[in-house]
Amino acid sequence: MISVVILGAGNVATHFFKGFEKAKDISVIQWYNRSLAAIKPYANAVEITDDISALKAADVYILAVSDDVIAEVSHQIPFDDKLVVHTSGSVSVYDLDKKHKRGVLYPLQSLSKNSDVDFANVPICIETIDKKSYPVLKHLARSLGSPTKRINSDQRRVLHLAAVFVNNFTNQLYRIGHEITEHEGAEFDLLKPLILETAKKVQEMSPYKAQTGPAKRNDKKTIKKHLKLLENEQHKAIYKLLTESIIQTHGRKKL
Amino acid sequence: MISVVILGAGNVATHFFKGFEKAKDISVIQWYNRSLAAIKPYANAVEITDDISALKAADVYILAVSDDVIAEVSHQIPFDDKLVVHTSGSVSVYDLDKKHKRGVLYPLQSLSKNSDVDFANVPICIETIDKKSYPVLKHLARSLGSPTKRINSDQRRVLHLAAVFVNNFTNQLYRIGHEITEHEGAEFDLLKPLILETAKKVQEMSPYKAQTGPAKRNDKKTIKKHLKLLENEQHKAIYKLLTESIIQTHGRKKL
């Protein structure tokens, strides 16, 4: 049995709590948040507190708090030499107070607070400084049902960066698709099957192989038509830059 | 029973042929391509020809040929006043020879030649010049199992443009995610569940509501870290431009 204290009340904290509740050999013995209101709904299921000096002794402390307060909160944990991990993609493991054994449990997924999570679709990237902490964190992640991967800090940083490209930036391209269709009275809904198919395709095939379209074909006529059609200067700049990027990736050798 | 002649041998021609073969009340009576080799595998199922002057009389001629030759091939069809449609997102319906009744059947999906297509996920956008042709084309599309939508030329043009954003450009963002992870020895595979989740999210929720991440939060610290991490100047420019675009979409009012 691994005993866990969760700190924070955001999406990751909430889904980790719910996931551990279902796991057989994990016990969440306490849930801390600086404001009790957010975790009060769980008061019947777990001891809650807003007093960090009242934290109980546990095997693992999971800091699912904002990046900015990870260092400070880890410092306030009133124990030494405990295994303390954060869940951030971009904060160094060394930002955690060095009085602890330190690690990271980084769930590589977009977790919405109000929808259920299937942890089978949430790879958890694990980083530890000492070797002995690794199997403990792997056990925690596996008990949620997540696939796990041991990574180092550099790899975590680029995964977080790549996640911005494939999630936030991709979503902004959907948003632009929404803007330009609705502007003309066409339905964004018509694009939804294509959006899903594009994401499904790269589950099996590399994005390189999956590419199609006017930029890949270097179809200057269609590219010109599209640029003429775009009224928003920023959309035009995005069209140009991503077209150039595709041409560079797939470009034929220059004559 | 609607009789159809298919012209061309690409992905759209092939999937339309296979789809119509399964439909009850559609009969593909002939398949034309300028080279017989590509359609020879279907010679037992349909009459094939490479001689456009030998085309049979049919209710509908579907030109699933390259954009560049639509006008010319439509001119060569040795009949007048037949219903002739092309399948392109970006070519005007008026590019078809005016001796015909003219229309468009534009499948809004990425069709790969070697994988099966479920037409339930392929919305077909229909455009006609005369009113009487519309129900015929709708019947054709429905018999494939596709959802249909009547649109005009302007709407088709922006849908094709938006498809480039949500399909080709999105796929290029996946490609960049692939490049930057593999460069650091991290696995692109770890990003695949996130890619799928991002696409699934906007099936139910607007891309505006679905947005998360450092750009939306205007988290300058993380944005700075990311820009420092990117070595490729083009990736850096894409990061900057899409971050600006998200900030503009979600920006708080200026003080």
Description of the molecule:
- Chains A, B: Residues 4-87 form the Pyrroline-5-carboxylate reductase catalytic N-terminal domain.
- Chains A, B: InterPro entries: 6-PGluconate_DH-like_C_sf, DUF2520, NAD(P)-bd_dom_sf, P5C_Rdtase_cat_N, TM1727-like_C_sf.
- Chains A, B: Residues 122-246 form the DUF2520 domain.
- The structure is a homodimer of 255-residue chains.
- In chain A, strand 1, helix 1 and strand 2 form a beta-alpha-beta unit.
- The model of chain A has no long low-confidence stretch (mean pLDDT 95).
- Chain A folds into 2 domains: 2-151, NAD(P)-binding Rossmann-like Domain (Rossmann fold), CATH 3.40.50.720; 156-250, ProC-like, C-terminal domain (N-(1-d-carboxylethyl)-l-norvaline Dehydrogenase, domain 2, Orthogonal Bundle), CATH 1.10.1040.20.
- Chain A has 255 residues and is α/β, with parallel strands linked by helices.
- Chain A is 44% helix and 15% strand.
- An 8-stranded mixed beta sheet of chain A has the order 3-2-1-4-5-6-7-8, with helices on both faces.
- The first copy, chain A, has helices at residues 11-22, 70-76, 133-144, 153-183, 192-204, 207-210, 214-217, 220-229, 233-250, and strands at residues 2-7, 26-32, 48-49, 60-63, 83-86, 101-107, 124-128, 148-150.
- At the A-B interface, helix 4, helix 5, helix 6, helix 7 and helix 8 of A face helix 4, helix 5, helix 6, helix 7 and helix 8 of B.
In the CATH scheme, the class of the largest domain in chain A would be Alpha Beta
State the domain count of chain A.
2
Q: Would you give the CATH topology of the largest domain in chain A?
A: Rossmann fold
Note the overall shape of chain A. elongated
Biggest interface, and residues per chain? A-B, 85 and 87 residues
Unreliable residue stretches of chain A: none
Q: What gap, in angstroms, lies between the N and C termini of chain A?
A: 66 Å
| Multimeric organization | homodimer
Total DSSP helices of chain A: 9
Estimate the strand proportion of chain A.
5-15%
Return the string of H and E elements of chain A. EHEEEHEEEHEHHHHHH
Helix/strand class of chain A: alpha/beta
Radius of gyration of chain A: 23 Å
